Structure formats: C-alpha cells, structure tokens
Amino acid sequence: MHRIDVHHHIVPPKYVEAVGAARVFRQSGRANPPSAGWTLQKSLEQMDANGIATALTSLSAPGTWFGDVEQGRRLSRECNEYAAQLARDYPGRFGTLVSLPLPDVEGSLREIEYAFDVLKADGVVLMTSYDNRWLGEKAYAPVFKELDRRRAVVLFHPTVAPCCECLMTDIPDALVEFMFETVRTVVSMLYSGSFTRYSKMRFIVPHCGSAVPLLKARISGLSNWNRQIAERLPNGPLHELKKLYYDTALSARPECFGPLLELVTAKNIVLGTDYPWGGMTVADTIAGVVRQGFSVEELRSIERDNALALFPKLKR
Fold first, then answer.
1. 58-105, pLDDT tens digit by residue?
2. Mapping DSSP to helix (H, G, I), strand (E, B) and coil, where does residue 155 land?
C-alpha cells in the first residue's frame, strides 16, 4: 500500500442529479460507461487490490461548466465539498483536486479561495478548454495568477470543445478529441508564455502527454521563426515541456512511454489510473508501468515519491 494515484475520478451523486447521466457520460461514446456505476466502495476496493495508498480525486469531463454561471458555481462548490468530505472521512486515503467554474473567472477566483483556505484542497483539475478557448488565453490569466501565488498543482483533463463535437459518424468524440485537446492546451499554455510566467505552479499532463512527446520537435519549431513568440520563452520551448509532469492514465504502454522518455526522465512521471474510465484497468496500468523496465528507484519515484513532492501534505 504505497502507490499514489494522481488521476482518480469520482462521480458525486449530486453531480449526476444536476447534470443528467446522459450529458455527463455522452463524451465517452458508451451506452453504459463504468462511471455510471461508480461508488466510493468500488474506489476503495480497487485501491486496496492494487496497493494504492492514496488517490487524488477529481471530476472527469465535462466538468462543471454548462453555460450557466450560477449552475457552474453551485456544481463546483457541491462537488468540491463532496471530495473534501471524502478526504476527511478517510484520512490518508484521498486527496482533493478541486473543480473551478471556468470560464467564469470571478466565480473561479472565489472557489479557489474557498477550496484552499476552507477545504484545504491539494490542487486543481482544469478541463483543457472552455467554450472553444484553451487555457493559455488571456481571459484566464487572473485565475492562473492566483493559482501561481498559491503554488498550486494543476491536472489538465481533456474534454471536447464545442467546435469539435460529432465530427465523424459513429466515432465517439473522446476517442480522438481527448488526445488532441491535450496537445492544444499544452501548446496554448506554452506559446502564451504561461508555463514560463507561472513558474511557481506545477502542471500534470495526462495520458503520458498524449501526442505532445511525439510532436515535440514540431511543437518547439514555432519559436525558431516567430520572434515575438520566442521572446515569451527565454529558455526555449523544450525547457518548458521538460518541466511538466506526465501521468500514466490509460497510457502505460511501450508506444506511449517511448516518446515520453525521450522528453523527460522518470522524475517527471506520476502514476495515474483514470479509474473508473477507459480501456485499461487499474491493474493493467500498474502492470504496464512495471513492464517498462524502470529501475527500483525509478519505479518508486513514479509510483509514490514524485507525487509526494507535488503534494507534500500527503506525507502527514
């Protein structure tokens, strides 16, 4: 019981009641997705069976924003309080990554204050985009400025932007869009200078970085010919990409680890399972990490020590 899972989802009952199961789960493309039957007991059983001492809980897509300011604020508060109560009821077993009602900046700033000062949150989960705007946009700067002041840890979670819904017949949006939503928001944060500007924060990119490691040369090439953008990155784009952390959710496979390990070392990889979503079980994810052939020290870093460095409260 030593592992720490930084990408572990919950489905608060009030969330499903407020939004509706069909709306919550439609991006998965499944008629009866596993999260539909999520319970706290099932989470604990999976953790116990797979040596997971602590899980950092978060909401998956589509998050808490559905176009209504009051609903977004209320849903964020209810879900965050639910998650914080889990952490209180099961000390040491759960940490909390809170949701914000972006693109509502004012509401998000209020929720940051409440989440960190009252609920004692461990970090934040942000969807990769909100209303066709990715996270590096200037509109979100006040939120990132406050998170940076608090030295917060942020987990990016892919969603599907309205512009990219239902593009292919019979193909669920998440199959492709989730992966490239991650690329879009990383590029947005990178070339807006956000990763450089908000240097006190730490960012976790899901799914072994999606296609970011594979496309690192293409992505970093923009700074070679656009001087205005290059000036925002005094240390260069690869320096910023190497600072990020990358989780293993649904990606503990050689074809994912290969490009990632050409970008970073085990010091920047953290265990994530994406429970209860996706095509890999918790056991499959852990087995995939072990099969990669990391040293004992590297495996310990991925499964526990790197997460403790990001979330020091978990040491208590």
1. 999 989 999 999 999 999 999 999 999 999 999 999 999 999 999 999
2. strand
Report how far apart, in Å, the C-alpha atoms of 100 and of each of 131, 175, 212 are: 14, 25, 25
**Treating both helix axes as pointing N-terminal to C-terminal, what angle do 282-291 and 40-49 enclose, rounded to 10 degrees?**
30
Contact in structure between 73 and 113 (CB atoms under 8 Å) = no
Which residue spans within 14-58 are E strands per DSSP? Answer: 52-58
The parent domain of residue 140 ranges over: 3-315
Q: What is the Cα–Cα distance from 73 to 216, expressed in whole angstroms?
A: 36
142: domain CATH number is 3.20.20.140
Three-state secondary structure call for residue 30 = coil
Q: What pTM does this model have?
A: 0.94
Q: How many CA atoms lie within 13 A of 125 on its CB side?
A: 30
- Gap between the Cα atoms of 154 and 147, Å rounded: 9
Residue with tokens 């949150």: 121
What is d(CA 306, CA 258) in angstroms, rounded to the nearest whole number? Answer: 20
Angle, nearest 10°, between helix axes 105-117 and 69-89?
Answer: 20
What is the residue type of 177? Answer: E
Question: What is the rounded distance in angstroms from the CA atom of residue 114 to the CA atom of residue 108?
Answer: 10
- Condensed to tens digits (0 to 9), the pLDDT of residues 278-309 reads 778 999 999 999 999 999 999 999 999 999 99
Q: How many domains does the chain have?
A: 1
